[in-house]
Design a protein that fits this description.
This protein is of the alpha+beta class and 459 residues long. It has three domains: 2-111, Trigger factor ribosome-binding domain (Alpha-Beta Plaits), CATH 3.30.70; 125-131 and 260-432, Trigger factor, domain 2; 151-245, Roll (Chitinase A, domain 3). It has helices at 21-35, 51-81, 135-148, 199-204, 222-225, 251-256, 264-298, 305-322, 342-362, 368-378, 385-394, 396-417, 428-432; strands at 2-7, 12-19, 92-96, 104-111, 125-130, 151-154, 164-173, 183-190, 213-220, 230-245, 420-425. Strands 6, 7, 8, 9 and 10 form a five-stranded antiparallel beta sheet that branches.
Length: 459
Protein backbone atom coordinates (compact mmCIF):
# COMPACT_ATOMS: atom_id res chain seq x y z
CA UNK A 1 0.00 0.00 0.00
CA UNK A 2 1.37 3.37 -1.05
CA UNK A 3 0.22 6.44 0.85
CA UNK A 4 0.93 10.13 0.32
CA UNK A 5 -0.47 13.16 2.13
CA UNK A 6 -1.48 16.53 0.68
CA UNK A 7 -2.25 19.54 2.89
CA UNK A 8 -5.47 21.38 2.21
CA UNK A 9 -6.79 24.57 3.77
CA UNK A 10 -6.16 24.86 7.49
CA UNK A 11 -6.37 21.45 9.15
CA UNK A 12 -7.61 19.60 6.06
CA UNK A 13 -5.51 16.70 4.79
CA UNK A 14 -5.96 14.50 1.74
CA UNK A 15 -4.70 10.93 1.90
CA UNK A 16 -3.90 9.43 -1.49
CA UNK A 17 -3.94 5.66 -1.06
CA UNK A 18 -3.01 3.08 -3.71
CA UNK A 19 -3.71 -0.62 -3.08
CA UNK A 20 -2.10 -3.22 -5.39
CA UNK A 21 -4.20 -5.64 -7.41
CA UNK A 22 -3.48 -8.71 -5.26
CA UNK A 23 -5.48 -7.83 -2.10
CA UNK A 24 -8.35 -6.52 -4.26
CA UNK A 25 -8.46 -9.76 -6.30
CA UNK A 26 -8.32 -11.86 -3.13
CA UNK A 27 -11.14 -9.89 -1.52
CA UNK A 28 -13.31 -10.17 -4.66
CA UNK A 29 -12.70 -13.92 -4.89
CA UNK A 30 -13.57 -14.37 -1.21
CA UNK A 31 -16.76 -12.34 -1.60
CA UNK A 32 -17.92 -14.43 -4.58
CA UNK A 33 -17.18 -17.62 -2.62
CA UNK A 34 -19.30 -16.27 0.22
CA UNK A 35 -22.09 -15.33 -2.19
CA UNK A 36 -22.24 -18.57 -4.19
CA UNK A 37 -24.15 -20.76 -1.64
CA UNK A 38 -26.76 -18.01 -1.19
CA UNK A 39 -27.26 -17.01 -4.83
CA UNK A 40 -30.76 -17.61 -6.23
CA UNK A 41 -31.41 -17.19 -9.94
CA UNK A 42 -34.30 -18.42 -12.11
CA UNK A 43 -33.60 -21.82 -13.64
CA UNK A 44 -31.08 -22.91 -11.00
CA UNK A 45 -31.49 -24.69 -7.69
CA UNK A 46 -30.35 -22.70 -4.62
CA UNK A 47 -26.57 -22.90 -4.28
CA UNK A 48 -26.13 -24.48 -7.72
CA UNK A 49 -25.67 -21.34 -9.82
CA UNK A 50 -22.41 -21.61 -11.81
CA UNK A 51 -19.68 -19.26 -10.64
CA UNK A 52 -19.30 -17.89 -14.16
CA UNK A 53 -22.91 -16.68 -14.12
CA UNK A 54 -22.61 -15.37 -10.57
CA UNK A 55 -19.57 -13.33 -11.60
CA UNK A 56 -21.40 -11.93 -14.61
CA UNK A 57 -24.55 -11.10 -12.68
CA UNK A 58 -23.04 -9.66 -9.50
CA UNK A 59 -19.66 -8.39 -10.65
CA UNK A 60 -20.39 -4.67 -10.27
CA UNK A 61 -22.12 -4.89 -6.87
CA UNK A 62 -19.39 -7.17 -5.45
CA UNK A 63 -16.67 -4.85 -6.73
CA UNK A 64 -18.40 -1.84 -5.13
CA UNK A 65 -18.83 -3.63 -1.80
CA UNK A 66 -15.23 -4.86 -1.78
CA UNK A 67 -13.96 -1.39 -2.68
CA UNK A 68 -15.95 0.18 0.15
CA UNK A 69 -14.70 -2.40 2.68
CA UNK A 70 -11.09 -2.07 1.56
CA UNK A 71 -11.20 1.74 1.67
CA UNK A 72 -12.55 1.69 5.23
CA UNK A 73 -10.06 -0.90 6.48
CA UNK A 74 -6.99 0.46 4.68
CA UNK A 75 -7.85 4.03 5.76
CA UNK A 76 -7.14 3.11 9.38
CA UNK A 77 -3.78 1.62 8.39
CA UNK A 78 -2.95 4.67 6.26
CA UNK A 79 -3.48 7.22 9.05
CA UNK A 80 -1.38 5.09 11.41
CA UNK A 81 1.34 4.79 8.77
CA UNK A 82 1.42 8.58 8.31
CA UNK A 83 1.05 9.27 12.08
CA UNK A 84 -2.00 11.47 11.52
CA UNK A 85 -4.43 12.38 14.32
CA UNK A 86 -7.85 12.67 12.66
CA UNK A 87 -10.40 14.86 14.44
CA UNK A 88 -13.27 12.74 13.14
CA UNK A 89 -14.34 10.47 10.34
CA UNK A 90 -13.23 11.44 6.82
CA UNK A 91 -15.59 13.84 5.10
CA UNK A 92 -14.96 12.10 1.76
CA UNK A 93 -13.79 8.70 0.55
CA UNK A 94 -13.55 8.87 -3.24
CA UNK A 95 -12.19 6.29 -5.67
CA UNK A 96 -9.62 7.39 -8.23
CA UNK A 97 -8.39 5.68 -11.38
CA UNK A 98 -6.12 2.89 -10.10
CA UNK A 99 -2.40 3.36 -10.47
CA UNK A 100 -2.19 -0.37 -11.20
CA UNK A 101 -4.64 -2.40 -13.28
CA UNK A 102 -6.86 -4.34 -10.93
CA UNK A 103 -5.82 -2.31 -7.92
CA UNK A 104 -7.72 0.27 -5.92
CA UNK A 105 -6.87 3.94 -5.56
CA UNK A 106 -8.82 6.42 -3.48
CA UNK A 107 -8.59 9.78 -1.77
CA UNK A 108 -9.66 10.32 1.85
CA UNK A 109 -10.34 13.91 2.92
CA UNK A 110 -10.16 14.53 6.66
CA UNK A 111 -9.34 17.09 9.33
CA UNK A 112 -6.57 16.57 11.87
CA UNK A 113 -6.14 17.90 15.37
CA UNK A 114 -4.03 21.05 15.55
CA UNK A 115 -0.65 21.07 17.21
CA UNK A 116 -1.12 22.99 20.47
CA UNK A 117 1.80 24.92 21.93
CA UNK A 118 0.67 27.09 24.83
CA UNK A 119 2.04 30.63 24.81
CA UNK A 120 3.45 32.66 27.71
CA UNK A 121 0.93 34.93 29.48
CA UNK A 122 3.50 37.26 31.02
CA UNK A 123 2.82 40.96 30.49
CA UNK A 124 -0.96 40.66 30.39
CA UNK A 125 -3.21 42.17 33.08
CA UNK A 126 -6.61 41.21 34.50
CA UNK A 127 -8.71 42.60 37.34
CA UNK A 128 -9.09 40.77 40.63
CA UNK A 129 -12.41 42.06 41.95
CA UNK A 130 -13.16 42.22 45.65
CA UNK A 131 -16.53 42.78 47.31
CA UNK A 132 -18.10 42.31 50.74
CA UNK A 133 -21.74 41.97 51.70
CA UNK A 134 -22.81 44.91 53.87
CA UNK A 135 -25.75 45.51 56.21
CA UNK A 136 -27.25 47.77 53.53
CA UNK A 137 -27.13 44.89 51.00
CA UNK A 138 -29.01 42.71 53.47
CA UNK A 139 -31.57 45.47 54.11
CA UNK A 140 -32.13 45.97 50.39
CA UNK A 141 -32.61 42.26 49.81
CA UNK A 142 -35.11 41.94 52.64
CA UNK A 143 -36.99 44.92 51.22
CA UNK A 144 -37.07 43.21 47.81
CA UNK A 145 -38.45 40.04 49.42
CA UNK A 146 -41.18 42.09 51.09
CA UNK A 147 -41.98 43.74 47.74
CA UNK A 148 -42.44 40.32 46.13
CA UNK A 149 -45.01 39.48 48.83
CA UNK A 150 -46.76 42.83 48.79
CA UNK A 151 -50.54 43.08 48.48
CA UNK A 152 -52.39 45.68 46.45
CA UNK A 153 -54.58 48.30 48.10
CA UNK A 154 -56.91 50.65 46.20
CA UNK A 155 -56.05 54.31 46.81
CA UNK A 156 -58.00 57.50 46.16
CA UNK A 157 -55.18 59.72 44.94
CA UNK A 158 -53.27 60.51 41.73
CA UNK A 159 -51.12 57.65 40.42
CA UNK A 160 -47.39 57.70 41.04
CA UNK A 161 -44.43 55.58 40.02
CA UNK A 162 -44.63 52.13 41.58
CA UNK A 163 -48.45 52.06 41.58
CA UNK A 164 -50.44 49.49 39.62
CA UNK A 165 -53.29 50.82 37.51
CA UNK A 166 -56.15 48.76 36.10
CA UNK A 167 -57.19 50.17 32.73
CA UNK A 168 -59.25 49.77 29.57
CA UNK A 169 -57.41 50.91 26.46
CA UNK A 170 -57.33 50.83 22.70
CA UNK A 171 -54.67 51.96 20.27
CA UNK A 172 -54.89 53.95 17.08
CA UNK A 173 -51.96 53.56 14.69
CA UNK A 174 -51.06 56.70 12.75
CA UNK A 175 -52.62 56.56 9.28
CA UNK A 176 -49.35 57.04 7.40
CA UNK A 177 -47.76 53.99 9.00
CA UNK A 178 -48.60 50.29 8.52
CA UNK A 179 -49.98 48.43 11.52
CA UNK A 180 -53.16 47.27 13.25
CA UNK A 181 -55.20 48.64 16.13
CA UNK A 182 -55.49 46.79 19.44
CA UNK A 183 -57.73 46.96 22.50
CA UNK A 184 -58.06 45.30 25.88
CA UNK A 185 -60.12 45.63 29.05
CA UNK A 186 -59.24 45.56 32.74
CA UNK A 187 -55.51 45.01 32.25
CA UNK A 188 -52.89 46.00 34.80
CA UNK A 189 -49.92 48.27 34.23
CA UNK A 190 -47.21 48.88 36.84
CA UNK A 191 -45.94 52.40 36.42
CA UNK A 192 -42.20 52.66 36.05
CA UNK A 193 -41.17 49.11 35.14
CA UNK A 194 -43.89 47.39 33.10
CA UNK A 195 -42.33 45.62 30.09
CA UNK A 196 -45.69 45.32 28.29
CA UNK A 197 -46.20 49.05 27.78
CA UNK A 198 -43.96 51.74 26.25
CA UNK A 199 -42.25 54.00 28.76
CA UNK A 200 -44.10 57.00 27.30
CA UNK A 201 -47.45 55.42 28.24
CA UNK A 202 -46.30 54.71 31.79
CA UNK A 203 -45.02 58.25 32.22
CA UNK A 204 -48.22 59.63 30.67
CA UNK A 205 -50.31 57.96 33.36
CA UNK A 206 -48.46 59.58 36.27
CA UNK A 207 -51.00 61.72 38.11
CA UNK A 208 -54.04 59.92 36.67
CA UNK A 209 -56.99 59.07 38.94
CA UNK A 210 -59.82 56.53 38.80
CA UNK A 211 -62.44 57.15 36.05
CA UNK A 212 -60.08 59.51 34.18
CA UNK A 213 -59.44 59.08 30.46
CA UNK A 214 -56.20 60.07 28.76
CA UNK A 215 -54.86 59.98 25.21
CA UNK A 216 -51.13 59.30 25.13
CA UNK A 217 -48.88 59.12 22.07
CA UNK A 218 -45.92 56.78 21.95
CA UNK A 219 -43.46 55.91 19.20
CA UNK A 220 -42.81 52.20 18.90
CA UNK A 221 -39.38 51.42 17.53
CA UNK A 222 -38.81 48.86 14.80
CA UNK A 223 -38.08 46.07 17.29
CA UNK A 224 -41.37 46.57 19.14
CA UNK A 225 -43.43 47.20 16.01
CA UNK A 226 -41.87 44.44 13.84
CA UNK A 227 -41.37 47.01 11.06
CA UNK A 228 -40.43 50.69 10.76
CA UNK A 229 -40.87 53.05 13.72
CA UNK A 230 -44.52 54.04 14.09
CA UNK A 231 -46.54 56.52 16.11
CA UNK A 232 -49.34 54.96 18.17
CA UNK A 233 -52.07 56.81 20.07
CA UNK A 234 -53.24 55.10 23.28
CA UNK A 235 -56.71 55.98 24.59
CA UNK A 236 -56.65 54.88 28.24
CA UNK A 237 -59.46 54.85 30.80
CA UNK A 238 -58.27 54.31 34.39
CA UNK A 239 -60.50 51.92 36.36
CA UNK A 240 -58.63 52.04 39.66
CA UNK A 241 -55.29 52.92 41.20
CA UNK A 242 -53.58 50.56 43.67
CA UNK A 243 -50.41 50.84 45.68
CA UNK A 244 -48.27 48.03 47.05
CA UNK A 245 -48.52 47.40 50.79
CA UNK A 246 -45.47 45.58 52.09
CA UNK A 247 -45.94 42.94 54.79
CA UNK A 248 -44.45 43.67 58.20
CA UNK A 249 -41.26 41.68 58.80
CA UNK A 250 -42.81 39.83 61.76
CA UNK A 251 -42.49 36.18 62.74
CA UNK A 252 -45.40 35.11 60.54
CA UNK A 253 -43.90 36.71 57.44
CA UNK A 254 -40.38 35.46 58.19
CA UNK A 255 -41.62 31.89 58.57
CA UNK A 256 -43.67 32.22 55.36
CA UNK A 257 -40.45 32.85 53.38
CA UNK A 258 -38.84 29.69 54.70
CA UNK A 259 -36.98 30.80 57.84
CA UNK A 260 -38.32 28.43 60.49
CA UNK A 261 -36.96 30.35 63.49
CA UNK A 262 -39.15 33.34 62.61
CA UNK A 263 -36.70 35.90 64.01
CA UNK A 264 -35.21 38.94 62.30
CA UNK A 265 -31.71 37.75 63.20
CA UNK A 266 -32.33 34.37 61.54
CA UNK A 267 -33.76 36.07 58.44
CA UNK A 268 -30.76 38.38 58.15
CA UNK A 269 -28.36 35.45 58.55
CA UNK A 270 -30.22 33.47 55.87
CA UNK A 271 -30.12 36.43 53.50
CA UNK A 272 -26.43 37.07 54.19
CA UNK A 273 -25.54 33.43 53.54
CA UNK A 274 -27.42 33.45 50.25
CA UNK A 275 -25.86 36.75 49.19
CA UNK A 276 -22.39 35.39 49.92
CA UNK A 277 -23.11 32.36 47.72
CA UNK A 278 -24.35 34.67 44.97
CA UNK A 279 -21.30 36.90 45.46
CA UNK A 280 -18.84 34.01 45.18
CA UNK A 281 -20.60 32.70 42.07
CA UNK A 282 -20.58 36.12 40.39
CA UNK A 283 -16.90 36.74 41.19
CA UNK A 284 -15.98 33.31 39.83
CA UNK A 285 -18.07 33.85 36.70
CA UNK A 286 -16.33 37.15 35.89
CA UNK A 287 -12.92 35.76 36.78
CA UNK A 288 -13.41 32.65 34.64
CA UNK A 289 -14.80 34.47 31.60
CA UNK A 290 -12.02 37.07 31.52
CA UNK A 291 -9.33 34.46 32.12
CA UNK A 292 -10.61 32.30 29.27
CA UNK A 293 -10.99 35.30 26.96
CA UNK A 294 -7.35 36.19 27.53
CA UNK A 295 -6.18 32.59 27.16
CA UNK A 296 -7.93 32.23 23.81
CA UNK A 297 -6.53 35.52 22.53
CA UNK A 298 -2.96 34.58 23.47
CA UNK A 299 -3.22 31.09 21.93
CA UNK A 300 -4.53 31.39 18.33
CA UNK A 301 -5.59 28.03 16.97
CA UNK A 302 -7.27 26.43 13.98
CA UNK A 303 -10.28 24.40 15.12
CA UNK A 304 -11.46 21.22 13.32
CA UNK A 305 -14.82 22.06 11.78
CA UNK A 306 -16.00 18.49 12.25
CA UNK A 307 -15.68 18.82 16.05
CA UNK A 308 -17.54 22.14 16.02
CA UNK A 309 -20.39 20.59 14.03
CA UNK A 310 -20.64 17.67 16.45
CA UNK A 311 -20.61 19.93 19.51
CA UNK A 312 -23.24 22.22 17.97
CA UNK A 313 -25.59 19.23 17.74
CA UNK A 314 -24.85 18.37 21.38
CA UNK A 315 -25.64 21.94 22.49
CA UNK A 316 -28.85 21.98 20.45
CA UNK A 317 -29.98 18.71 22.07
CA UNK A 318 -29.06 19.98 25.54
CA UNK A 319 -31.15 23.07 24.86
CA UNK A 320 -34.13 20.87 23.97
CA UNK A 321 -33.51 18.84 27.14
CA UNK A 322 -33.64 22.00 29.25
CA UNK A 323 -36.97 22.85 27.62
CA UNK A 324 -38.11 19.35 28.68
CA UNK A 325 -39.33 18.53 25.19
CA UNK A 326 -40.49 14.87 25.17
CA UNK A 327 -38.98 12.57 22.57
CA UNK A 328 -42.23 12.22 20.63
CA UNK A 329 -42.35 16.01 20.08
CA UNK A 330 -38.69 16.52 19.17
CA UNK A 331 -39.54 16.32 15.45
CA UNK A 332 -41.51 19.56 15.82
CA UNK A 333 -38.22 21.32 16.61
CA UNK A 334 -36.36 19.93 13.59
CA UNK A 335 -36.19 23.47 12.20
CA UNK A 336 -33.92 24.50 15.09
CA UNK A 337 -30.63 24.20 13.24
CA UNK A 338 -27.39 23.30 15.04
CA UNK A 339 -25.92 26.28 13.16
CA UNK A 340 -27.52 28.47 15.82
CA UNK A 341 -25.09 26.91 18.31
CA UNK A 342 -21.91 27.04 16.21
CA UNK A 343 -20.31 29.97 18.04
CA UNK A 344 -20.61 28.58 21.59
CA UNK A 345 -19.64 25.15 20.27
CA UNK A 346 -16.52 26.64 18.72
CA UNK A 347 -15.54 28.31 21.99
CA UNK A 348 -16.02 25.07 23.93
CA UNK A 349 -13.91 23.02 21.50
CA UNK A 350 -11.25 25.75 21.44
CA UNK A 351 -11.02 25.80 25.24
CA UNK A 352 -11.09 22.01 25.44
CA UNK A 353 -8.08 21.66 23.10
CA UNK A 354 -6.09 24.20 25.10
CA UNK A 355 -7.09 22.69 28.43
CA UNK A 356 -6.15 19.15 27.35
CA UNK A 357 -2.66 20.35 26.45
CA UNK A 358 -2.38 22.33 29.70
CA UNK A 359 -3.35 19.30 31.80
CA UNK A 360 -0.67 17.29 30.00
CA UNK A 361 2.01 19.99 30.28
CA UNK A 362 1.32 20.66 33.97
CA UNK A 363 0.65 17.00 34.89
CA UNK A 364 -2.59 18.05 36.62
CA UNK A 365 -4.04 15.54 39.07
CA UNK A 366 -7.31 15.68 41.03
CA UNK A 367 -7.40 14.18 44.52
CA UNK A 368 -10.34 12.80 46.46
CA UNK A 369 -10.18 15.71 48.91
CA UNK A 370 -10.55 18.17 46.01
CA UNK A 371 -13.64 16.34 44.75
CA UNK A 372 -15.09 16.46 48.27
CA UNK A 373 -14.45 20.21 48.60
CA UNK A 374 -15.98 20.99 45.21
CA UNK A 375 -19.04 18.85 45.96
CA UNK A 376 -19.53 20.65 49.28
CA UNK A 377 -19.28 24.03 47.57
CA UNK A 378 -21.86 23.02 44.96
CA UNK A 379 -24.25 21.68 47.63
CA UNK A 380 -24.46 24.86 49.72
CA UNK A 381 -27.75 25.90 48.15
CA UNK A 382 -29.54 22.64 48.97
CA UNK A 383 -31.57 21.90 52.11
CA UNK A 384 -29.53 18.76 52.83
CA UNK A 385 -25.96 19.58 51.71
CA UNK A 386 -24.41 16.50 53.30
CA UNK A 387 -26.88 14.17 51.60
CA UNK A 388 -26.31 15.88 48.25
CA UNK A 389 -22.52 15.56 48.58
CA UNK A 390 -22.80 11.85 49.40
CA UNK A 391 -25.11 11.23 46.43
CA UNK A 392 -22.84 13.07 44.01
CA UNK A 393 -19.70 11.26 45.13
CA UNK A 394 -21.43 7.88 44.64
CA UNK A 395 -22.38 8.68 41.04
CA UNK A 396 -19.54 7.99 38.53
CA UNK A 397 -20.88 10.48 35.99
CA UNK A 398 -21.32 13.18 38.64
CA UNK A 399 -17.79 12.50 39.91
CA UNK A 400 -16.43 13.04 36.40
CA UNK A 401 -18.28 16.35 36.18
CA UNK A 402 -16.80 17.33 39.55
CA UNK A 403 -13.35 16.46 38.27
CA UNK A 404 -13.87 18.71 35.24
CA UNK A 405 -14.96 21.56 37.54
CA UNK A 406 -11.90 21.13 39.75
CA UNK A 407 -9.59 21.20 36.73
CA UNK A 408 -11.34 24.30 35.39
CA UNK A 409 -10.88 26.11 38.72
CA UNK A 410 -7.22 25.06 38.80
CA UNK A 411 -6.77 26.46 35.30
CA UNK A 412 -8.36 29.81 36.15
CA UNK A 413 -6.20 30.12 39.29
CA UNK A 414 -3.11 29.20 37.27
CA UNK A 415 -3.84 31.85 34.63
CA UNK A 416 -4.02 34.50 37.36
CA UNK A 417 -0.59 33.41 38.66
CA UNK A 418 0.92 33.98 35.19
CA UNK A 419 -0.26 37.58 34.67
CA UNK A 420 -0.25 40.97 36.36
CA UNK A 421 -3.30 41.45 38.60
CA UNK A 422 -4.99 44.74 39.46
CA UNK A 423 -7.28 44.84 42.51
CA UNK A 424 -10.72 46.39 41.95
CA UNK A 425 -13.02 46.93 44.95
CA UNK A 426 -16.73 47.02 44.10
CA UNK A 427 -20.02 47.31 45.94
CA UNK A 428 -22.41 44.37 45.65
CA UNK A 429 -24.78 46.44 43.48
CA UNK A 430 -21.93 47.35 41.12
CA UNK A 431 -20.83 43.73 40.94
CA UNK A 432 -24.34 42.45 40.17
CA UNK A 433 -24.65 44.91 37.30
CA UNK A 434 -21.34 43.91 35.75
CA UNK A 435 -21.12 41.51 32.84
CA UNK A 436 -18.28 40.27 30.65
CA UNK A 437 -18.94 39.00 27.15
CA UNK A 438 -17.46 35.66 26.18
CA UNK A 439 -15.12 36.32 23.25
CA UNK A 440 -13.84 33.76 20.80
CA UNK A 441 -11.04 34.91 18.43
CA UNK A 442 -11.97 34.88 14.78
CA UNK A 443 -11.24 31.52 13.14
CA UNK A 444 -8.10 31.20 11.08
CA UNK A 445 -10.18 29.22 8.60
CA UNK A 446 -13.17 30.95 6.94
CA UNK A 447 -16.64 30.08 8.22
CA UNK A 448 -19.88 30.56 6.32
CA UNK A 449 -22.08 31.01 9.37
CA UNK A 450 -21.83 33.48 12.25
CA UNK A 451 -23.98 33.38 15.39
CA UNK A 452 -24.13 35.05 18.77
CA UNK A 453 -22.04 33.64 21.60
CA UNK A 454 -24.32 31.93 24.12
CA UNK A 455 -22.42 31.28 27.32
CA UNK A 456 -19.85 28.78 26.11
CA UNK A 457 -17.49 28.60 29.05
CA UNK A 458 -18.11 25.01 30.08
CA UNK A 459 -14.95 23.22 29.03
Amino acid sequence: MRVSVESGEGLERRLLVDLPAEPVTEAVTAKFAELAPKARLPGFRPGKVPMRIIRQRFHQSVLEEVSRDLMESSYKEAIEQEALKPAGNPSKLEKRDPAEVGGLSYTATLEVFPEVVLQDLAGHTLADRQCEITAADIDNTIHTIRERHAREEVVDRPAQSGDTLYIDFFTDVAADKPGSDAADENVSIRLGDDPDFPQAVQEGLIGAVADEERIISATLNAGEADHDDQLVHYTVRVLKVTEPVLPEPDATFIQSVGVKEGTEAALRQEVEDNLNIELASKLQELRRTEAFNLWLQVNPLDIPQVLIAQQAVVLRDQWLDRLQIPAERRSQFASVSPLSFVQPARRQIYLSLLLTQWVKDQNIQVGEDELQTRAECNAQQYEDPAGMVAAVLRDPQAREQLRDQVIEHKLVDWIFTQIDVETEVLSFAELKGMSVESITPEPQMPENETTDDQGADHV
